[in-house]
Amino acid sequence: MPELPEVETIRRQLAPLVEGRRLVDVEILDERWSRPLAPAELAAALAGRRVEELGRRGKYLLWALEGDVYLAQHLRMTGALLYEPEPEPSHVRMRLLLRDGAGEHRLVVDDPRRFGTGELLLGTDALDDFFAARLGLEPLDEAFTIEHLRRAARGRRAPVKAFLLDQRRVAGVGNIYADEALFRAGVHPLRPAGRLTRGEWERLRTGVIAALRAGIDAQGASIDDFRHLDGARGSFQEEFLIHRRAGEPCPRCGREIVKMVAAGRGTYACEGCQRRPRRRGGTRQKARERVAVG
DNA sequence: CGCGCAACCTGTCTGC
DNA sequence: TGCAGACAGGTTGCGC
Questions:
Q1: What is the DSSP string of A33-45?
Q2: Given this model, what pLDDT does residue A280 score?
Q3: Is A59 assigned a catalytic role?
Q4: Is A271 exposed, middle or buried (0-12, 13-18, 19+ CB in 10 A)?
Q5: DSSP 3-state helix, strand, coil percentages of chain A (rounded to 5)?
C-alpha cells in the first residue's frame, strides 16, 4: 500500500508528535513484526529511549532514537499508523506509549496482512549497511539524474516498469507511481529498460518526480487501506491519470485505457500515448522461436 | 548476475 | 446464498 508519498505523508504528520518524546512502553503483539528478534527483545531495545528524529528512506520510516539506536519500520501492503485511535483497530501488531511533560500518547500499528516489519539497527554503520543493501537513489534528491538512470539500466532487458519497482535502483516508487510516471513520460511499461533513449529517460525522470510530488501534495492515495494518522484518507486516488482507470478515456488523447500485467503487477497504460514495444528483440529469442515453430 | 515467479498473509470482490 | 478463485499499495528467495 504505502509508497514514498504515503510514507512521507505519515512522516510529516507524525514527526511533531514523536520527536522529543520518550517511548515509555513498547508492546509488540506479533512475532512476525519483530523477526528475526523476538517481540520482547525488540521491545526491550526500544523502551525507555527518547525519539530524536523521525525520517524516511524510500518506503521506510526511520526512527532515530537516543543512544545511536534506529528502528527501520516498513508498512508493506496494509500497514497503518494510527494516533490514539478510538476504538482500537482490529489488527494491532505494535503499540507505543509516548510521554512528554504534558502527558502520554498512544500510537498503534494496524496491519491485517501482517507483512509489516520493524528492524532494529544498532549504530550508524549498521544503518548505512542496511539501506545500502536495499535502496538506490532517493528520487526527490538532486543526485537523481538521467546519467544515473541510464547507467543503472544499461543492458537491462526487463520491462522498464520492473526497473522502476526495483528499490535498489530507485527508492520509493511502487505500483501506483510507476504507472503514473510512465504515463506522464509517454513510455510503455513493457519497454525493455535498457532500450530507452536519453530523451525518454529525461521524460521519465521528470515524470517520476512530478508523480511523487503530486502524491505528496494530495497527502497520498487511499484506494483501500492507506490512512492518515487520524484515520482520514488521502486524495491522490482522485487525481490518478492512468492507474486503475481501465476502460476510461486517456486524459491526453481520449483512447481507452487498458490494463495489462507488467513485472507481475496490474498495470495501466494508454497505448496511444505509450507505444508498445514491437515483439521482443534479440537473436537468441528469435532462434528459440524458430526452434519452437520448426 | 538478470529475470520471472512463488511465497508470505488476510480481506474483499467477482462470477458461477 | 455459497463458494472457489482472483486480486490487492511490497519484498524476498528460489530456480533457471
A1: HHTTS-HHHHHHH
A2: 52
A3: yes
A4: middle
A5: 35, 25, 40
**Per the domain annotation, does A286 fall within a domain?**
yes
pLDDT tens string A129-160: 999 999 999 999 999 999 999 999 999 999 99
Residues A168-185 have pLDDT tens digits of: 999 999 999 999 999 999
Region A110-117: mean pLDDT is 98
Question: Which candidate in A3, A6, A8, A119 is catalytic?
Answer: A3
- Tally of CA atoms within 13 A in the half-sphere of A16 that contains its CB: 4
Known catalytic residue at A3: yes
Any strand C atom closer than 7 Å to A260 CB: no
Task: Give mean pLDDT, residues A19-33.
Answer: 98
Same-domain pairing of A203 and A169: yes
Contact, A198 CB vs strand B, < 7 Å = no
- Chain C: nucleotides under 7 Å from a protein CB? 7-12
- Residues A44 and A17 occupy one common structural domain: yes
Q: Looking up cell 528469435, which residue turns up?
A: A286
For residue A139, which of A166, A115, A162 has the smallest C-alpha distance? A166
Rounded to whole angstroms, the Cα distance separating A77 from A75 reads: 6
Q: Which residue range(s) make up the domain with A219?
A: 146-292
Q: Would you call A282 exposed, middle or buried from its count of C-beta atoms within 10 A (0-12, 13-18, 19+)? A: exposed
Rounded to an integer, the average pLDDT of A180-205 is 98
Nearest-CA residue relative to C1' of B1: A156
